[in-house]
Amino acid sequence: MRTEIIAVGTELLLGQIANTNAQWISQRMAELGLPVYSHAVVGDNLDRVAGSFREAARRSDIVIVTGGLGPTEDDLTRDAGSMILGKTVHEHAPSMERIEAYYKRNNKKMSLNNRKQSHVFEGAHVLDNMEGMAPGQIIQQGEVTWVFLPGVPREMKALMESGVIPYLQQSFSIQSEIVSEMLHFIGIGESDLETELQTLISGQTNPTLAPLASEGEVGLRLTATGETTEEAKAKIAEMKTTVLGKVGDFYYGSDDQTIEGTVQQLLSRHGYRLGAAESFTGGKFMERIISLPGASAVCQGGLTTYTAEMKEQVLDIPKYLIREYGTISHECAEMMALNTQSLLDVDVAVSFTGVAGPDSSEGKEPGTVFIGLQIKDKSPEVHRFQFPGGRDQVRERAVKKGFELLFHRLKN
User: Fold this and answer.
1) Cα distance between residue 392 and residue 158, in whole Å
2) Which among 90, 142, 197, 246 is least surrounded, fewest beta carbons within 10 Å?
3) SUPFAM superfamilies of this UniProt entry (predicted)?
4) Which residues of the chain have pLDDT under 70?
């Protein structure tokens, strides 16, 4: 079964309000085992609304329309529906009584155009709107089930729960359940991940796999259907095992898990305490991990030393080192990590120094970043990067890379 959602309203296209209705409906339909294949938003223009309905009728089994059922001239859903479905509209007496009662109860005079809100299609299964005025409607037209709902989220949700979902469950004898899990990977690009999983992706049926890139990491959404939730979850678990057998070295967690949360868990597992020395990142690294519940068990503290003078006075970076190599250097990042471990009495120290931009500094281009790591009594290591983007992007990418480096070092 192919489901499509059409939202009617120019205000959506102008960005004045967000189309949260489509997101909510999609989630509920997925839970029913009726996946949504398409979202559309169309403005208040009769030809365009009718055209979107015409296209939907060609490709979908269930079409859910929200909005355009109000009293004004630009509420065109009924007009477009009449054109495409070949249905006349008439006044729905119970809805009209409810509208009139509302105005009487609130001591208001009802304008004549409000009668339009009670109009329904000929032969429609009418859903009483107890939260508003315009009723919902369901129409079976050939092989397509049409659902028309008000655009007000409160009204739409009430009608979906009380009328639309029970109708669909009864009409389609829904037996399948849909389950998804988002796997998170770091240290591998989207193209490399897809290459490693190409055989699985090209042969996917149930579950399906969808790579999704985000800042500094890659997600892989696994989606499975089954007659029961347990069956769908079992399919997800089997595919997840196969996926991790290929790219498990880069996997740090699923769904709501964050990279900083995983690093926190690894520090706790080892019994390590963490400290940081930050220059151009300005404390962003420690802020990310300190914001987690239970951070005090693994975080000792952080030192923000922005200028050369502060690096000398707070971190004890020798003047000769800064004079010879500069603050934006392999040598300075290494000494920052080493001295932070000693000054804060921690097992793990990470340091950040670099040029966020927009101008060059010490002969280094914007985006030049050095990240130092010192773990227990191991030899210190320093990694150099050249990040693209503006000042804020460089800082955020450096912080994410710091967590990535710690993750790969600590998990091994």
Assistant:
1) 43
2) 142
3) CinA-like (SSF142433), Molybdenum cofactor biosynthesis proteins (SSF53218)
4) 174-175
